[in-house]
Amino acid sequence: MKSRYLMVAASLSLATTASASSFIGTTDAIGSSLANSAESSSNVTTGGNDKVVLQARDDAASFVASDGAIRGVHLEAALAHLRAQQPATLATDMQLAEDILAR
Fold it and tell me: Which keywords does UniProt give here (predicted)?
């Protein structure tokens, strides 16, 4: 009977370790992906503290929080401004809005 309890305890211990390792691997992959996305979009918005971009922070927050459903006038102006500065950018509106929030 005692050996059965030890086997159950050992099994639970292994399952917990495997689950934790899987979680850590998943969060590392997600974090790495987000870091790469932020880095690529921040390369687009070189220009420091553009007034147009800084005024768009509240609109950018609403845009990101609503998953792109709310598009304010200040955000639209900032997106146009950023794309005019770097016409070859491939960043999405969401990536640019996230970069505006990171400033």
Answer: Signal
For every one of its 103 residues, what pLDDT tens digit does the chain have, with 9 covering 90 and above? Answer: 656 655 555 555 555 444 445 555 555 555 555 555 545 555 444 455 589 999 999 999 999 999 999 999 999 999 999 999 999 989 999 999 999 999 8
How many domains does one find in the chain?
1
Tokens 């990171």 belong to residue: 102
For the entire predicted model, the pTM comes to 0.54
Q: What is the 3-state secondary structure (H, E, C) of the chain?
A: CHHHHHHHHHHHHHHHHHHHHHHHHHHHHHHHHHHHHHHHHHHHCCCCCCHHHHHCHHHHHHHHHCCCCCCCHHHHHHHHHHHHHCCCCCCCHHHHHHHHHHC
Give the range of the structural domain holding residue 52, as residue numbers without chain letter: 2-102
